Structure formats: C-alpha cells, structure tokens
Amino acid sequence: MIEEIRIRNLGVITEATLPLGPGLSVVTGETGAGKTMVVTALGLLLGARADAGAVRTGAPSAVAEAIVRLTPDSPALARAAEAGAEIEEFDGAAELMLARTVNADGRSRAHVGGRSAPVGVLAELGEQLVAVHGQSDQLRLKSQAAQREALDKFAGPALAKALAAYQGSYHRWRDASAELEALRTAARERLREAESLQLALEEIDGVDPQPGEDEALKAEALKLANVEQLRAAATLAHQALVAEEDYGESSDAVTLVEAARRSLEQASDEDPELGKAAERLAEVGYVLADVAHELASYAAALDTEGPGRLEEVENRRADLAKLVRKYAPSIDEVLEWSSGARQRLDELTDDSSRIERLEAEIGELAERLKEQSAAVTSLRQKAAGELAARVGEELAALAMANAQLTIGIEPAELSAHGADSISFLLKPHPGAAPRPLGKGASGGELSRVMLAIEVVLAAVDPVPTFVFDEVDSGVGGKAAVEIGRRLAMLAKYVQVIVVTHLPQVAAFAGQHIRVFKTSAPAGKKGSEGVTASDVTLLTDEERITELARMLAGQEESESARAHALELIEGARQSL
C-alpha cells in the first residue's frame, strides 16, 4: 500500500504531499488544476519514460517520491533488498522509499530505499505494487502473459492442480528432448572424446601408479643418492652409543650410563632420592640400547641396497612424472582424474542405449502432455466463459451494456504454460468484431472495461494498489453511481486511487484529496504568469463543499450542499 506521495515541481504542482491510506482515495479538482499530475508522478515512480516537459517551468528538476508499506513476504521487498535498498521494518511490516528525479534536460535518476538504482528496478517493483489504468495506458493485463495468469488464477485450484501436473511432464519432456538432441548432434565429438579418454586411461593403467607413490619415490631417491653419507652417520652414532672396540679415551654412552646407574643404586639405601635417579638412568639405558639397535639395523639395510636400485627408482619417477605433466599436478590427482574419466567413458560408450531409452521416454511424455494440455485447455475454456459473463454484468452496470468481453483461447505450441494462446478481446457493440484490449475503445471506455475486469478478479488476482484516471469519462447519473460503487467494492481488497470529475464517484471515497490552483509566488524569477497548484486532504465538511462545487459550481449553495450530503449518505448505505 502507498502511504504517501510527495510531488515537487511537476507540471503545475510546485510542492504537494498526498497522504494516502487503505480503501478508496479520490483526487478531484478543477480542469487544469493538475489532477493528472498525480498519475504522472506514479508513472515516474513505476519506471515510465521521463519527459522534460513535465518539469515545472523555471524549475531545474521535478521530483516524485512515495512511501510504500509492504508485508515481510512481499516479492517487491525481496527485489528492493537485492538492489541494496535500506528498508525500515516495524509492527510486522516494512516501509520502502521510492524516488524519481527528472531534470529539465530530460535526464532522470531513480532511488530505491535511499540507494541509487536503475530505472528498470522501479519498473520491476511497479509491476508487483501498482496497476495503473489511465486514459492513454492500461498497464495492467496489457500482455497476453498477464491475461493468461489472470485467467488461470480466476479458474482456481482445479486448474492450478492440472497445470502443475502438466508442467512436471513438460519440464521432463523438454529436458529429455534437449539431451537427445545433444546426443545426436554431438555424436562425432562424443566419439572423439571417448577415444581420447580410452587412450589416456590405457596409458595410466599401463604405469599403474599407486596413491602417494611419487612422494615416496622422491624420498627414496634422495636417500639412495646419499647412501654413503647416511651409512657413515649411522655407524658413527652407533659406535658412540655401543662401542664394539675402545671408543677413544672414554667408554660408549651405554657403558657410561650403566656405570652411573650402578653407582647411584649402591648409595640408594642411604638416600632414596638417589634411588629414583638410578631408576631414571635405567630407563635412559633402555632407550639408548633401542636407538643403538635401530641404527645397526638401518646401516645393515643400507648395505642391502643394490647398485641398480637408484636407477630403478629414477626410471619409475620418470614414468610417473610423464603422467603428472599430462593429467594432473600429483599422482593422487592423476588417480582422481582417471576415476572421473572412467565414469565419463562409461556414459559416452552407452550413447546408443541411452538414445533408445530417451526416444521411448519422449514418446510416452508426448502422449501424456497431449492429454494433460487438453485438460488444462478445457478448464481454461470453462473459466473464460464464466469470467467473460461476470465482466459483462459489470459492464452493463457501468453504462456499457452493449460491450462484451471475449476471451480467446487458440491452439499454440507447447510451452511451460500449456498449449494455449490466450487473449482478452473487447467487442464494443453488436456487429463489431472483437479487438484486443486498448483498440477500438476510448480511454474512458477502456478504463471502465478494466475496472469491470479488476472487480471480478480482485478476490483472486490483486495487486496492492490500483490507480484509475478518469474512469468515469463520458458517463453520468446512475452509471456514475455504479462506477463509484464498484470502485468501493474493489477497495475492499486493495488500495484504490481514482482521479475523477464526477461527484457520484467521489461520494464513495474513504478519503478525498483536492488539487486546486493557487497564485504563483510574486517576485520569483520566472514565476510570472505561471499557474501553480496545491493539494490538500479534505475534512468531512470540506468534502461536502467540494462535492457541491462539482455538482453545481456553487460551493455555498444550500441545495448543492444538501445534494452533496445526500450523495455521501447514499454511498455509505449502498455498501
């Protein structure tokens, strides 16, 4: 819902704030006062093309702003968040600020939630927030896609269920058809890919690498290349621990530690602390003996390495390096690549059987789609007849008794939405051929047609806000009262803003906004001779005065005021 619209330097309006609320809001005023600037401002906020001519004479730019209140699950709110908008949340709802600035040179800027955004974002938000029905543009239900969606929602759960079943089959049919086409058109490429994978796997299998083998061989090669140095280090260390011969002037480490242990053990009776030290030295002796044994084994193992082992290791490393250069940075990754390649090869070599399975599945799906699309079409035809009849009843009440809405459903190629081409057509009078909405009818007539459609669709396919500009053009009397009543009926479901010149329509308003002419500020450069307008929200008493002006042009006429009050009371009682 739009809570407020602010306008500055747009057309004849210098600066105005329109406080709006739920239900029906009407905008009235004398001819030329600038009522349509409200619709123009909304158009700018919905991403309409900027027109430098709309900028007030002498002003550098025109600005339109709106505060929109949304539910937390609104798709528009999610889209605004994607655009980086700052959103205020409170009381289980959220407020979003929209703004559009048009410079005198025609350039414009858009802001969503205080952040600069492309004008296209405003247009996307507008589709979800506001439906405008103006004298020149009927934005809502203009496209066949929008008309199809409206009809489907009107048809209710039965069609939704049938369409969901159809769409499940359709998406699988489309995917299977695409896969089959890819298999057929890429047969040669897939064959070449299979041959390439086969050769690569044969090469890898011929080498038969093992996980981590490249790193293990690297370490072994380093060891073999330095075997003499390693042997000398191990032998020297072993002799230092356990000397087979006299080791210099002192004994080996094991002997010295053992001597120290015995010395302490002999004195342990006099002081238990020495006994504990002796126990620890015994542990050290065991460790030294183990290390000495390991060094002896290590040196002996070095002696068993034959002179040709290093050459074998280097040759094996060369074979592995070739695989690493061709397929992956390491042997483990080569093995991982080969695993994926085998799976891919299995897929490629299974093409012929896969094609047969897909052809059979596509045939079954085609038959199923034929039946499901026929069911969808039947439900749409039934709903179309009911929708057209109910809209016809509304048109009769809106002084268009001879007009008829026809909903055409023609066969079309399969799509995600069925096998139907849907179009809303208007037959303005008997003998005339039905034509698409927007052709063959005046702006006022078309607005009434759209009002009739929206009243019928309001319970199943609403948008938060509807705007009607001069929906009552060319009518009066009882027909005008019916237009007002239907606008009020629509306002039970959504917010409705109406620009009108008929008191019968304005009498149904929940809130009444008046646009009136004022004098341009004296002495301002460029203001001489320029008409200005202002906007005000009317009180109950002021509403009576405005309706009297609209009825008789005499605000103070007692009879006009009495008639105005009678209209308001009659509107309240008829709802």
TrEMBL record:
Pfam families named in the record: SMC_N
Source organism, top-level taxon: Bacteria
Coiled-coil regions, chain positions: 348-382
Keywords from the UniProt entry: ATP-binding, Coiled coil, DNA damage, DNA repair, Nucleotide-binding
Keyword Acetylation assigned: no
Limits of the RecF/RecN/SMC N-terminal domain: 1-518
CDD domains assigned to the protein according to its UniProt record, in alphabetical order: ABC_RecN
Entry keyword RNA-binding: no
Function (record text): May be involved in recombinational repair of damaged DNA.
Family, similarity comment: Belongs to the RecN family.
Protein name stated in the entry: DNA repair protein RecN
